[in-house]
Amino acid sequence: EVQLVQSGAEVKKPGESLKISCKGSGYSFTSYWIGWVRQMPGKGLEWMGIIYPGDSDTRYSPSFQGQVTISADKSISTAYLQWSSLKASDTAMYYCARLGSSGGGFDYWGQGTLVTVSS
Amino acid sequence: DIVMTQTPLSLSVTPGQPASISCKSSQSLLHSDGKTYLYWYLQKPGQPPQLLIYEVSNRFSGVPDRFSGSGSGTDFTLKISRVEAEDVGVYYCMQSIQLPPTFGGGTKVEIK
């Protein structure tokens, strides 16, 4: 069974750094792209970027390029999303998801990690 | 970026009745490889999105056959033949022919 399990909710202050994780299991982690999707409170879905854990090839949405860093550690089947300096506007639910074998859409999703940034 | 426009914004449906959601893209989603990169997701309350339909009309594993997708080019439709209580939530279309993939604004479906 394919599973993506994300790290728990975080409460941070503006300016702090953060790294959240997404652990894949039940499939060959290095053979599928993993992506991150943001959902701000009460809003829709925004595609942030994807990484191919096999070779760490990474693509970002221009809206998120330079704002976050996506990485992966294939030895432990885990992808990461990190911020060096959080802003209040980063408050959102963040989902990781696996890109399906057809290469276009996300087929399996993590449960989400709620990030709250508040002074 | 490709703009995805969904209508209606919300839908209230009697159980057992059909429902239909439209999604229009600002550019054709037909790729030179012959595939059309249009997907449908359902986000049930308090849950992550789940894939319903991929490449316009293919039901994902485990998706009931009351869900169907159709369309081509820039115009797409998701139909639920007989709405059930478990179908409540927000439905999103998404394109991935061009980076960055973009989602429609969502259609909220509720039960009357």
Task: Give the arrangement of secondary structure elements.
The complex is a heterodimer of chains A (119) and B (112).
Chain A: E1 3-6, E2 10-12, E3 18-25, E4 34-39, E5 46-52, E6 57-60, E7 69-73, E8 78-83, E9 92-99, E10 106-109, E11 113-117
Parallel strand pairs in A: 2-11
Antiparallel strand pairs in A: 1-3, 3-8, 4-5, 4-9, 5-6, 7-8, 9-10, 9-11
Chain B: E1 4-7, E2 10-13, E3 19-25, E4 38-43, E5 50-54, E6 58-59, E7 67-72, E8 75-80, E9 89-95, E10 102-103, E11 107-111
Parallel strand pairs in B: 2-11
Antiparallel strand pairs in B: 1-3, 3-8, 4-5, 4-9, 5-6, 7-8, 9-10, 9-11
Outline the structure in words.
The complex is a heterodimer of chains A (119) and B (112). Chain A has 119 residues and is mostly beta strands. Chain A is 0% helix and 50% strand. Chain A has no helices and 11 strands. Chain A has strands at 3-6, 10-12, 18-25, 34-39, 46-52, 57-60, 69-73, 78-83, 92-99, 106-109, 113-117. In chain A, the strands form 2 sheets. In chain A, strands 2, 4, 5, 6, 9, 10 and 11 form a 7-stranded mixed sheet that branches. In chain B, a hairpin with a 3-residue loop joins strand 5 and strand 6 (58-59). The radius of gyration of chain B is 13 Å and the shape is globular. Chain B has strands at residues 4-7, 10-13, 19-25, 38-43, 50-54, 58-59, 67-72, 75-80, 89-95, 102-103, 107-111. With 112 residues, chain B is mainly β. Classes of the chains: A mainly beta (119), B mainly beta (112). Chain A binds chain B through residues 37, 44-47, 59, 61-63, 95, 97, 100, 102, 104-112, and chain B through 35, 37, 39, 41, 43, 48-51, 54-55, 60, 92, 94, 96-97, 99-106.
